[in-house]
Specification:
The chain is mainly alpha-helical. It has helices at residues 22-49, 60-80, 88-105, 116-142, 147-150, 153-170, 190-215, 228-247, 251-269, 272-292, 294-304, 315-327, 355-387, 392-416, 434-450, 463-476, and strands spanning 2-7, 10-15, 171-174, 177-183, 186-188, 218-220, 223-225. It has one domain (2-456). The two termini are 36 Å apart.
């Protein structure tokens, strides 16, 4: 039996041989230990609150299902025999597990789906996590060629823009933003999928015109401008998506798209001047948006001084800062935070926009640094995959996919910590939400597929086998 492995422009075939993944298995064991310890901590906190001395996991059934899903994804990778990255799955597994523990900790009636009444917040999150892990495993094994991505870049971009425009017809408004499409019991945010489509388009276009973007330029004082005839179609496609997102008041997605756009242009051209020009345009666009759009002005004013209206517009940001302050260096321990204010959660959107504040209170500064470190690991693995890529398209695609997860994480982290205005995007693999989990699962699945080093060459013949061959040749000569 043979299996296809991806090479630039064609497929090659080789035998399927199950291949051990000891590094991945060891890291998954560490992830399982960490999550079990966290679940026991939650259970002990609940037991102490009820006056009991029991030390049992909070909800062992959910934890077993989640760890079993990770284990099955690992077994699928072993049986497939592909030589893919062995760090990405454990890193994602740790983040998803922390998100599951947080959802178990929060009131279960926060679930916003049609299944929330029966499954609760943690139950719904577990379902989406299992689906996300399945998507990662399937994409990492099934995707063998990137031709369907690079050849139809304009088709993908058009489909993404069309999906985003559909929100104007079928979209529902939430917190002043027109983001969600609901079809029956299911709902999702098209901007989550658009970030993947945009990276595919940018990687395809930049890889095609990279030599011209590097060699051709126009000088404007100390800056070197890109050749507009080649850069203009890419800017138009990006600006269209950016403009629609701004109109929909999804500032987080707009900032994410712009940051990834600038990063990929720099990766493709190594021109610092392009980044400088982009940052200047960002500042000018921000100033214009502040004066033109009320929702932008409100976000900026809250960022500058949330204590000006601590019980109104600045309430959530103030409560997030208080949560970080309560957590201090070591935190209050899993299950020991989130004191209620007036019988309610201090941060209403804690499961979507502010999960880092809840984790910061219970895990402290050390815990937050560890979580951000896991995102840095994902970025590092993605850039490593990009550096080892066989051509420009794969390199730019891997770099862009890794940056999508990393930039999104650090944007929401900076918003929670009041380093930048709050944007409202989700924290990858930790925040509650199916569309976010599925989109980020597609990102990681594609990264794993791109990391494949091809069929492992057969081992060299042993010394005894070599001697036998020489004796056979002599006897027949």
């Amino acid at each position: 039996m043979s299996v296809a492995t991806a090479l630039p422009g064609r497929l090659t075939f080789g035998p399927i041989r199950p291949r051990s993944r000891r590094r991945e298995l060891g890291l998954l064991v560490l992830v399982a230990v960490a999550l079990v310890v966290g679940s026991v901590s939650l259970g002990a906190t609940r037991a102490l609150a009820e006056g009991s001395a029991s030390f049992a996991p909070w909800d062992p059934a959910r934890l077993v299902v989640y760890l079993a899903a990770l284990g099955m994804a690992h077994v699928a990778q072993v049986l497939a025999g592909r030589r893919t990255d062995q760090v990405l799955l454990p890193a994602v597994g740790l983040l998803g597990g922390l998100g599951l523990l947080l959802m178990e900790r929060l009131p279960q009636d926060l679930a916003g789906s049609a299944f929330g009444d029966s499954l609760g917040l943690a139950g719904v999150q577990l379902v989406w996590l299992v689906i996300a892990i399945t998507v990662i495993a399937v994409l990492s094994i099934v995707v063998r060629s990137d031709t369907w991505l690079r050849r139809y870049k304009y088709t993908w971009a058009t489909a993404g823009i069309g999906l985003l425009l559909l929100t104007f017809v079928l979209g529902e408004e939430a917190n002043g933003a027109l983001l969600t499409i609901r079809l029956g019991p299911f709902s999702g945010q098209p901007t989550e999928l658009l970030k993947v489509i945009l990276v595919v388009f940018l990687a395809g276009y930049l890889s095609e015109f990279r030599p011209l973007l590097i060699s051709e330029s126009t000088r404007l004082g100390p800056l070197r401008l890109p050749p507009l005839p080649y850069l203009l179609p890419m800017i138009v496609m990006w600006a269209l998506a950016f403009g629609i997102v701004v109109i929909q008041r999804d500032l987080g997605a707009a900032l994410l798209f712009f940051a990834v756009f600038l990063a990929l242009v720099y990766v493709a051209t190594s021109r610092v001047s392009y980044v400088v020009i982009g940052l200047i345009l960002l500042v000018l666009g921000g100033i214009a948006a502040y004066h033109l759009f009320d929702h932008v002005r409100v976000r900026v004013d809250i960022w500058l001084d949330p204590f000006a209206d601590p019980s109104g517009d600045g309430y959530q940001v103030v409560q997030a800062l208080i949560a970080f302050a309560r957590g201090g260096l070591l935190g209050t321990g899993l299950g020991g935070g989130l004191p209620l204010v007036g019988g309610r959660l201090p941060i209403p959107a804690i499961h979507t926009d502010f999960p880092l504040a809840a984790l910061g209170e219970e895990l402290g500064l050390i815990g937050i640094m560890a979580i951000l470190g896991v995102y840095l690991v994902i970025i590092e693995r993605g850039l490593r995959i990009a550096a080892a890529a066989a051509d420009d398209f794969r390199a730019l695609l891997a770099a862009g996919l890794a940056l999508v997860v990393g930039v999104q994480a650090f944007i929401i982290a900076a918003g929670n910590l009041k380093l930048i205005p709050l944007t409202g995007i989700t924290l990858p693999f930790i925040s509650y939400g199916g569309s976010s989990l599925l989109a980020n699962a597609v990102v990681v699945g594609l990264l794993l597929a791109l990391s494949d080093r091809g069929v492992e060459p057969p081992p060299p013949p042993s010394r005894s086998r070599g001697r036998f061959d020489r004796l056979l040749r002599r006897s027949t000569s």
